[in-house]
Structure formats: structure tokens, C-alpha cells
Amino acid sequence: MRALLIFAIFIPSVNLMAAIGTAAVLYGSGQGILAGWASLGMLAAFVQYTERAFQPIRNLAERYTVLQSAMAASERIFGVLDTPEEIRDPEHPVALPRPVRGEIEFRDVVFGYDPAEPVLKGINLHIPAGQAVAIVGATGAGKSSLVALLARFYDVQQGGIFLDGVDIRHLAQHELRRHVAAVPQDPVCFSGTIASNIRLHSQEMSVERMRWAAELVNAAVFIEQFPDGYDHEVRERGSNLSVGQRQLLAFARALAFNPEVLLILDEATSSVDTATEALIQDALARMLRGRTSIVIAHRLSTIQHVDRIVVLHQGQIVEDGSHAELLAQRGFYHRLYHLQFAEEVGR
User: How does residue 301 score in pLDDT terms, banded at 50, 70 and 90?
Assistant: First the structure.
């Protein structure tokens, strides 16, 4: 805004001065022509001289505004770079017991982006190793916050989260995230090849492992349709791929690193066609098999493969059980299920 204000004042001021100068030359030269001591040629020359005199000032003004914009941008950049880290590794991190099983436990977890307004209030949840759990609830219930805490994007204000009996705050972040993979709702793609997007430029991952992951989540279906296959060029943010293709690519990337715990945030099947949605559903079923998984679900049709459903309401767990058990309770899940079923029938 400061750069725009300077630009809005400086450039018109220079143009006004140039106009006043030109008017003064025209007036003076006009008087000279009438008095006989000036000619039309002299008038034309001095008008041109005036224009040439103000052109460098205009250029300087433009450069000054560019400089102001650059300074404003640099302030924002250095503001980001100078932001202190809120999530820090412990001085003496501990290691997870081997082999990593993927058992998760939330103990009296309280968390809020503003500590005065907690989003999660006393969450107690135990997820045995290898179990697939869906978290459902209305918008704002705290589903995504619960998963973000497990990946340690934020730290809890009270309580603790344990992976195989170890508080995740006692682990190095790279150690935690080597065993916990997250698939976001809006998958991130980088400029490069499809292979580099799956491998994330890891030199340790073999081509066979990469291809296995792509085939397991049905990403190979569309990858092999490209003339150059896994060497197909991906533009920035995956702009030359569809939403469904980016989602399958994100699944392949997560599975290629073989994490013990898989987090799937807010599935994005509502904006894809029926055939692609079927591929994504099949990929989800394959990914969840045999590993601890937490799926954030908005569309209840996407959680048919899970072992257990946890219902959040206003930051608290209100129901926990299988699909049939929760429907029989005729509570929050029963209401959510029938509301969504009515919406789908209405469409």
C-alpha cells in the first residue's frame, strides 16, 4: 500500500510539472513570436527540449516505484525468514522402538490455535497398530486439527500424543515424519517429472519401488497413457494434470516411502468424475490395508473400508464404533449419514 501511495503521488506530480513547463514554454515563446524575437522553429525546439528534460525524471520516478515495490517484497520475505520456529526438536531426541508398529494414543489432548479458545477438548483416543480409523463430524469439529497434531504441525497445549508409547514431542521431526505420511486434500505437485514427484528426488528409492507404489494406487493407469510415461513433464502445481491425477500421484508418493502411519486429510473426491472416483476409492482400500491409518471424511461413502469410525463434535469425541454400531445408536453419526444420503438422493 505504501508503494502504491508513492506511485499515485509521485508520477502525477512529475507529469504535472512537465505540463506546467510545457505551458510556460508555449506562453513565453508565443510572446516572443508576437514581439518578433522568436520563431516557430525555436518554439518547436524548446517544446522538444522540455519533453526531453522531463523524460529522465519520469524514468527515475518509475525506477523509484519499482524500488519501493522491491523493498516492500523484501520486507515480507525477510519477515518470513526471520519468523522463529514454533516446533523445535528436543535437545536429546529419543528413537522409536524397532520395529515401528504404528500404535497411536491421544491422552487428554487439549489444543487451540488460540490457546484461549480450544478446538480440541480433552481428546482420549487409542488406535491399535494396523487399524484404519475414520474421523467424521461437522465442519469445525476439529477433525483436521487432530491429524495435524499427530504429524506435529502444531504442539498440544495439554496432554500428549504417543506413537508406539513414545511422546512425539520427544522425537526428532524427521524421525516422526519418516514413519507418518500425510496426503492433503489439495495435493502438491512440483515442476519436474512424474517420477521425481513420486520419489521427491530421493536417491535411495529404486525405480521398482516407485513403479510398485504407482501401480498399487492405480496411478499407473494414467501415467502409462503418456508417451514418455514416468518421464512426463509436470508443470508447476501440476497445472497439466487433473484433480484426480494429482490425488493419485499424492497417494503413490505417500505409499512409496512405506510409512507405518498414514494420514489422509479431507478426501477430494467431490470434484472428480465417476471413473476417477472409483480409482481413488480402490486406491484408498489398498493403501489402508495392513497399516495404521486415519482418514478425515466428509463424504461418508469414502469410509466403507475402515475398521472403526470416530465422531467428533465441538472438539470432543461423542461416538466411537463401527458403521453398523453407530447407526444403531441413532446419534450424531446416524443424523450425519441420513442427511448426506438425503442430499445425494436429491441430486
Answer: low
Q: Which of 148, 176, 146 is nearest to 164 (CA)?
A: 176
* Amino acid 124: pLDDT: 93
- Out of 3.40.50.300, 3.90.580.10, 3.30.70.1450, 2.30.30.100, the CATH code matching 104-346 is 3.40.50.300
* Domain locations in the chain as residue ranges: 2-81, 104-346
**Per-residue model confidence as pLDDT tens digits over 54-89:** 888 778 777 877 887 888 889 999 999 998 888 888
**Residue 15 pLDDT grade (very low, low, confident, very high; cuts 50, 70, 90):** confident
- pLDDT tens per residue, range 24-44: 888 888 888 888 888 888 888
Pairwise CA distance, residues 335 & 342, whole Å: 11
